[in-house]
Automatic annotation (TrEMBL):
This is Fatty acid hydroxylase domain-containing protein. One of its GO terms (biological process) is lipid biosynthetic process. One of its GO terms (cellular component) is membrane. It is found in: Membrane. It holds the Pfam family FA_hydroxylase. Keywords: Membrane, Transmembrane, Transmembrane helix. The keyword Transmembrane helix applies. PANTHER family: STEROL DESATURASE.
Length: 180
């Protein structure tokens, strides 16, 4: 296929991020309620996924339990509390950096696709065990509001030089941000 042919194909992911999911990522340092802070389109799709079970004859309470689980799961996934076995820490890194740790923690898809950040000392934060020289109570926070200067139009984090990075330390470095 010719290069002009592939470049004329719209990137649906960019469009959806910019116009729908970016609202959720305005929570650069998320709290429990950031989990359900969504664009109406995203919220409709998120909760209507529970209706997939209806054609299979499931009892309505199964659908209601699924909706309840989606809400509580979103709250717990963004609450910032670290309980043993809970990988909220890696999701906090996702909100701080935007271009990493997309998948669920038990599935190693981020490692396979090169979008995982974190190391063994970070795993100690997940399981509550102190690794050599690691502070288990330490949590990642983004130091200020996200602006055009530190995030590109698609949502990828930039360094001070404006170049996207793949490999970085797990804890985001404080950066100077301007209020707009």
């Amino acid at each position: 296929m010719h290069p002009w042919k592939t470049s004329s194909v719209p990137d649906v992911g960019k469009f959806l991020y910019r116009h729908v999911h970016s609202l959720h990522h305005k929570s650069y340092n998320p709290t429990a309620f950031s989990g359900t802070s969504m664009h109406p389109v995203e919220s409709t799709l998120y909760y209507s996924a529970c209706l997939i079970a209806v054609p299979f004859g499931c009892h309505p309470t199964v659908v209601l339990a699924c909706i309840f689980d989606c809400a509580v799961g979103a709250w717990l996934g963004h609450d910032g509390f670290q309980m043993p076995g809970n990988c909220d820490y890696f999701h906090q890194l996702h909100h701080a950096h935007f271009d990493c740790n997309y998948g669920a923690s038990p599935v190693p898809i981020d490692k396979w696709l090169g979008t995982y950040i974190g190391d063994k000392s970070d795993l100690s934060k997940v399981w509550g065990k102190k690794a050599a020289g690691a502070d288990v109570s330490e949590t990642p926070v983004h130091q200020g509001p996200v602006s055009e200067t530190n995030v590109d139009k698609v949502g990828g984090a930039k360094t001070d030089a404006g170049v996207k990075t793949k490999k970085r330390s797990a804890s985001p470095a404080p950066a100077a941000h301007k209020e707009e």
